[in-house]
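Hi D.,

Good news: the full-assembly prediction came through. Inputs first.
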Amino acid sequence: MSLQPPALDPKSLAPYTGCGYPEPYRARVLPREVRRVGDALGLTRIGINVTTLAPGRESSMRHWHTHEDEFVYVLEGELLLRTDAGEQPLTAGMCAGFPAGSRDGHQLVNRGARPALYMVVSNRDPEDMAHYSDADVDLMWNAPHARGRMTRRDGTPY
Amino acid sequence: MSLQPPALDPKSLAPYTGCGYPEPYRARVLPREVRRVGDALGLTRIGINVTTLAPGRESSMRHWHTHEDEFVYVLEGELLLRTDAGEQPLTAGMCAGFPAGSRDGHQLVNRGARPALYMVVSNRDPEDMAHYSDADVDLMWNAPHARGRMTRRDGTPY
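Then the structure:
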């Protein structure tokens, strides 16, 4: 019997399979399946996504948020967490947290042989911007003046 | 090798084993172990707890929040979700969400034979209050005028 609201089986949701990044970054992320669990449950103050990341792919480019705490929890498989502390393998049941405004950029990389499943949680703040950490990533996510738009670091659009 | 911040293994945290409820409600909850993962990671805009609930126990009394979205995700075992929709069993990988201000009270009950493990997520809002749904629960959690204090429904203290 299927669950009724306010309960939900995330596997019942159709995944978002796109990626807001321009190339060449998009190809480093996809294929990736994002199930927008919080949206499906009517939550507006927190965002909850359950994501499947293919072997060899990156959850995002290494980044940090100005106004949103972010939390990741590994559900299946293994992911490499990359931050200023270096690289740390996270297996099911392990997690990491990134306070808003902390300039230590993070990303998860699936260097395993099978898909990895993880949950991403954040508060939602319309003032939020994301800055990218790695020198080879010429990317910025701008808000609120250009909400949801990616630009190069110098502000020029893709 | 143990994880370094911003990574964390929740099992490495000492649990909170108390309960803010007065009796007779406390005895319906304990033993329960709450690992305050978000606090340990320095998060202040979202709260993240990983909780172990013993067989026969209730996660909380059935309640809803005025200013905080709440989200629960089952990690191990089975929990019965009680809401206005009735009772629904949730197994590992299933979840539920409760938007701030929605008056449909919820609780999780462990009717299984083994401990259940689940994650609880919310935004944090100092204006938040919790109201209790069941006629046999004469309880209110008041904020901000009496932050974190439990009273009877008529406002008298325990």
